[in-house]
Amino acid sequence: MRILTFNALAPEFADWPRRREVLADGIRALSPDLITVQEVDDEIVDLLGPGWHFAWHSGRDESGVGAVAVSRWPLGAVRELDQRPPGREIRTAWCATVAVEVHAPSPLWLVHHKPSWPYGYEVERERQAVAAARFVERLVPDPATPVVLAGDFDAEPDSASVRFWTGKQSLDGTSTCYADAWRGGAGHTFSPENPLVRAGDMPGEAGRRIDYVMQRAGPHGPPFAVVDCRRVFTEPVGGVQASDHYGVFAEFTALPHAPGDLRTLRAGADTS
Length: 272
Description:
Elements (H helix, E strand, L loop, with lengths): L1 E6 L8 H15 L3 E7 L2 H6 L4 E4 L9 E6 L3 E8 L13 E7 L5 E7 L7 H18 L7 E6 L7 H6 L12 E3 L14 H4 L12 E6 L7 E9 L14 E8 L8 H4 L6
Parallel strand pairs: 1-2, 7-8
Antiparallel strand pairs: 1-12, 2-4, 3-4, 5-6, 6-7, 8-10, 9-10, 11-12
């Protein structure tokens, strides 16, 4: 199973017609099964082509830009948690968590999480992470049911909200654990090495990893093995940079047996 998360940078910016072609070609080459993408409008349907199923965040801005989860497999239930923070000036229209039941060969849920983005809004991101985790547990209480979590979290790995997601700390009397697919290196997905970041509205950006693909861990760990996880859309194609974010692409595969299953050891099987 291949998962891509990507903030595409709204079509009003940076020569979208040329960026659109770079994105379309890149996504075809990656051939993901599940996608979470932010800052897109309805044109994403034509960009991806036939055979996809879409679950949009209900909120869009005045130009129709929002966020969407996409699947090669049919979708079942779609549930949304509004995460726009009360009392804050910046309340992005698609600030929400959308959980989607995916009728894959082995059924799973895809959770597309988009918290608040500004510097200085970490308390909101903490509250949004806790609310999202509780929301998912209510929807998918069986720990054996796989849950894939992906999106632009606008928070670094050592932030409280991401530490909460990855089981490194509790928040508000709640704990959870989602295994981060990324291993090794800084993995910055919003970087001053990207010319669209340098030219954008955060010219002082020092570089952060803020885009993630994770899987919910049960009592004995996550349900899938990580075959690959890497940044994508990092290099310009024909002089065209796809977005101000780099994407994250992860590939999962089945484990040799279910987490917590000790039958092979009880049977005295050779596990060498």
